[in-house]
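Appendix B. Chain record.
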Amino acid sequence: MTVYIMGDFPSALKFELGIYVDQFVRWAKLNFDGFFELIKKVSLALLLNVEKLLLLIPWWLFIALVFILGWRIKNWKTGLLYSATIFLIGTFGLWEELMTTLALVISAVIISLIIGIPAGILTAYSNKLEMILKPILDAMQTMPSFVYLIPAIMLFSLGLVPAVFATTIYAIPPVLRLTNLAIRSVPKEMKEAALSFGSSRWQTLFKVELPQALPTIMTGINQTIMMAISMVVTTSMVGARGLGLNVIKSINQIDIAMGFEAGISIVIMAVILDRITQGMAEKFRYPESSE
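Structure tokens predicted for this chain:
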């Protein structure tokens, strides 16, 4: 005899939405296999070439470039601090892992910007598109990062490509949102003045709207980079190499030393990238302060 408790939700009203999502992903894989194969080849080629380029740069030259960036963004003391912390990662014996992780982040961010910035511009010109995309972006930003790995594995199996795919999906929303906000925030008077002087819509976009919106777009790029870095450890569970894999190994082996060195290396990379991109955004926002 089945006993029903008044507080229980009725089983007759159960709706298994996940089944339909699973069927959709399987249908997409079956019917658009060529398209996903193209994405796989392009993503893998981008990632491997970025990684190869980074590994070709001598360690001392890379540290020197970090110093110059920090110096140009703020001052020589900041550049020295950044280069010293990057040197510290090398002393851990994690230089190659750092370059691999950086390649994954750069590749995902490049793809995110290629998709996110144009989509953000289109959204700024269409209230209907914004209304459609807003709940989708909300879901993308609040969905647990591990969930992205499931369709990534189904579409691309294990390896580097699902890592790039999942990281890209997770990292796109900030740059798309802030590009949309930035374009919409450009004063109407400036756009009307440009149009009244005979500028086309394209000229107004590239010569008026984008220059005015650039500081906010740079903030979006900064947030996209941070989101991509936050996926580093998660994507190592589907075959991504680098610092995230060392963290997973340290958990499996209960190796505190390995976990700490890999973890602090990720933190150092994240902080440096955050400060550099924030500094660039400030340069665009207050150009007179850089004189």
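Further analysis of this model is presented in Appendix C.
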